[in-house]
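question for whoever is on the cluster today: can someone run the full assembly for these? two chains, 870 residues total. i dont have access anymore since they changed the login thing
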Amino acid sequence: MSKTSIGFVGLGAMGFGMATHLVKEGYAVHGFDVFPASVERFKAAGGIPASSLQDSAKEKEFYVCMVASAPQVQSVLFGDDGIIAALPKNATLLLCSTVPASYAQSVAAELTSIGRSDIAFIDAPVSGGALRAAAGTLSIMAGAPDAALEKGRFLLQEMSDANKLYLVPGGIGAGSNMKMVHQVLAGIHILGASEAQGFAARLGLDAVKTAEAIKSSPAWTWMHENRLQRMLDEDWHPGASALTIILKDVGIITTSARQSQFPTPLCSTAEQVYLSALLQGYGSVDDSSMVRQYFAEPIIKVSSTKSDEEMAEALQLVLDLMEVTNLVAAAEAISFARYLKVDLKQFYTLVSDAAGASRQFMTKGLEIIEGLGQGDKGSETVDAASSRLEKAVQKARDLHCPLNLGNAALNVLFMAKRSGLGAEGSASVVKVFEH
Amino acid sequence: MSKTSIGFVGLGAMGFGMATHLVKEGYAVHGFDVFPASVERFKAAGGIPASSLQDSAKEKEFYVCMVASAPQVQSVLFGDDGIIAALPKNATLLLCSTVPASYAQSVAAELTSIGRSDIAFIDAPVSGGALRAAAGTLSIMAGAPDAALEKGRFLLQEMSDANKLYLVPGGIGAGSNMKMVHQVLAGIHILGASEAQGFAARLGLDAVKTAEAIKSSPAWTWMHENRLQRMLDEDWHPGASALTIILKDVGIITTSARQSQFPTPLCSTAEQVYLSALLQGYGSVDDSSMVRQYFAEPIIKVSSTKSDEEMAEALQLVLDLMEVTNLVAAAEAISFARYLKVDLKQFYTLVSDAAGASRQFMTKGLEIIEGLGQGDKGSETVDAASSRLEKAVQKARDLHCPLNLGNAALNVLFMAKRSGLGAEGSASVVKVFEH
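^ ran it for u. tokens below:
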């Protein structure tokens, strides 16, 4: 005997995993996708194929929307033959697509304006990749009125890891904002991994040894560790994480930041490099291919002819670049999160165990969140941090190596110094964003 | 009967023009270059070939050094068989190469430390291109003690236009600093011309019509007007102004800015794009090829299918992009000039009639130089300017068009807003740099 019926739209890599996991858990999942082949594949995996959007929604008390973008959401929800018109009274609708918070809010407003405020609507973007989707262990950042969250909670729990379901205070839009500020870090660190390894190659450093040093240092990021093997192997076709995916997420960030008129110098810089790479034809390949923006050959081919002492000195430049840039990235993400009234303690917990994590975020980021002046006694000053980064940036310039994030971060630190923050703890660079 | 004898080193494109002009004016010019072919060519043009550096300097009361970079200067002046050792007592030495001010100062210090303070040394970088070099109508920015300037003045006058010899107060290094802060604008506007025309192409606008509109608008820059034809014709080989030339000048700026720990967000951004293009193989070609970083095809091929109204709207985005970005560029250059204690009135005069000129510099830049609060009554606010730029940047993002300078400028304006400057005149964006 089946559990309750669930409608589902969007059977791509992530959506397919989520929907088939629900099938395995015993639900009668009625799935739809614009690609008939995806529906067939879902049927083969035990799902119930829906013949149309309306068919997928009719008489379904629960519905999950996992299409790729806000325009697609708008079309499937409110277009001709749309989901909303077909959903029964008091249905629960989970929007799991990554969309701008303002868009999620506009869905709620539209539901009200067309007289469907009976629908319990939950803004619930997910994170974690296709494998975790299929295992029902995603991270989910869910925001909605309490009554809606109560109705949808069991379904959120089915799809997420027990420790990774974040009920985000703030109602509709809060889940999307939480995901977005997390992606600020992800978007910067993806490029940062390539920038650091490309710079190391320019310095004549061995790629694997450099990576090992990064992993065990304060420069560590989740993204660097995650992307490293694909970067070394140049295993880009088909990409496990196509450039266009992070570009879409970063586009949501910079668009929202512009709407808030909030500066995001590092994330914007990363976006510009991604757009340049898109123009060069890298859109569909794995984002670890960004290393090509810094080094023209496979980095694995670099074999060092330096002395141990020279190697240690060069390696330190790479570590300093990443560490100080990641500090500024943490400041940018946290200040934007604070501006958006995101719950910072929850943000910290989420990031520390997700793709946006970095050792800098977990240490200096915590200082920033807990309030400056407590943790920063005796810590490195803005002057000292900028001086370390300056050496790396100058060396890269001498080698004619682009260092997009490093330069952007250094300019932020110089702004901090111009504001008189030079002698304060390095975490106070956040004040540049918060005046 | 010849006028006085002059030694000359560095017979490249600029140096050859300068040296042969002096020959035409009746001087006995003894020229040397590391490339024997350049010396032969100089001989064919009426010059006196020197067989060595020492030969070019021996018994010459006046000497002009026009090699390409500071390391080359160091080598020809102080290396084995160097110029200084060969120059007679009380000789006058003009250093016309573009070098960091700190390097020019180190030359003066070295002259003193080796007991050759008898040499009248003048820091005198030039600007204007090979044609003006050959015509003796360069811009020259000369800094030195008064006594030295007095001795070298006739020679500076021979090589420069009557209105374009700038005797820069501040002694050795002041000339180089003046040239450097001018190049902040040149370095940004070269990329800005490509960014604007590339964005226009993405918008489906006709390249020539767009260029005409820019020329007659507040978005005008000297660089855009100068580079336009080569950009339209894709006349890049051999470049009239190779990417590596502006990259060298920009490198002097960002290196000096780092030494001063002064933020140069736009100039640094331009440098990063130049470095990326260098990696793509654009180093030796004309810098108007930077348009390729924004549009994959020749922009002249774009034929618009838009209505007049749509065209006007799209064109306005291009004009807004350039105008507001140029305002921030003016603020960056002027604040850096002020920080370096460059004479701002002279800077204004020089820029207005040189390659760094822009209509924004000549209007808003003047406001900034004369002191805010006088000219800015009733003028556009920071809020309004950033809002115009924001629309352009968002549109570019929607089109997946990189907009490196536009994004960097917008982040500076957002920083200004975060500092509480939103309601002030747009020229007060300079306060971000000056706190």
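summary bc i know u wont read the tokens: The mean pLDDT of chain A is 95. Residues 308-339 of chain A form the longest helix (32 residues).
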